[in-house]
Amino acid sequence: MGHLLTVLRAEGVISPPPASATPVDEELRSYDEYTDHVRGLAPKTRSHALRIVGRLLISRFGDDAIDFAAINPDHVRRFFAEQAELYSKLPFNAIFG
Question: Which of 15, 28, 67, 84 is most deeply packed, by most CB within 10 A?
Answer without folding.
Answer: 28
